[in-house]
Amino acid sequence: MKTITCNCGFTVKDTNAYKAEAIMWHHAIHDHGDMLKSMTVDMLEQWLMNKDEQLKAGA
């Protein structure tokens, strides 16, 4: 089971890592759109690296 958790507490669990990440992106876009718009490329890169670590840990 792959698990990703947002800083707000929203958690995604799925057997497919791509599906879990897609669900998390959907959540982030719809619930944190303003925050995403204010993030730099470096901030987004760090966020993605952290979520990849969560996916690996949930393998």
Q: Would you kindly provide a written description of the structure presented here, covering whatever features stand out?
A:
The protein is of the alpha+beta class and 59 residues long. The protein has one domain. The protein is 64% helix and 14% strand. It has a two-stranded antiparallel ribbon. The N and C termini lie close together (6 Å).
Fold blueprint:
Elements (H helix, E strand, L loop, with lengths): L1 E4 L5 E4 L2 H15 L1 H6 L2 H17 L2
Antiparallel strand pairs: 1-2
Protein name: DUF1059 domain-containing protein
Organism: Paenibacillus montanisoli
Summary, kept brief:
This protein is an alpha+beta fold and 59 residues long. It is 64% helix and 14% strand. The longest helix has 17 residues, at 41-57.
Give the fraction of residues assigned to helices. 55-70%
Please give the domain count.
1
The total of beta strands comes to: 2
What gross morphology would you assign? globular
- What distance lies between the first and last C-alpha atoms, to the nearest angstrom? 6 Å
Into which percentage range does the β-strand content fall? 5-15%
Please give the count of helices. Answer: 3
Which regions have little confidence, pLDDT < 50, spanning 5+ residues? Answer: none
- Class by helix and strand content? alpha+beta
User: Average pLDDT, to the nearest integer?
Assistant: 90
Instruction: Give the strand order of the largest sheet, numbering strands 1, 2, ... along the chain.
Output: 1-2
Q: What's the Cα radius of gyration? A: 11 Å
| Largest sheet report | 2 strands, antiparallel
Order of helices and strands: EEHHH
Protein name: DUF1059 domain-containing protein
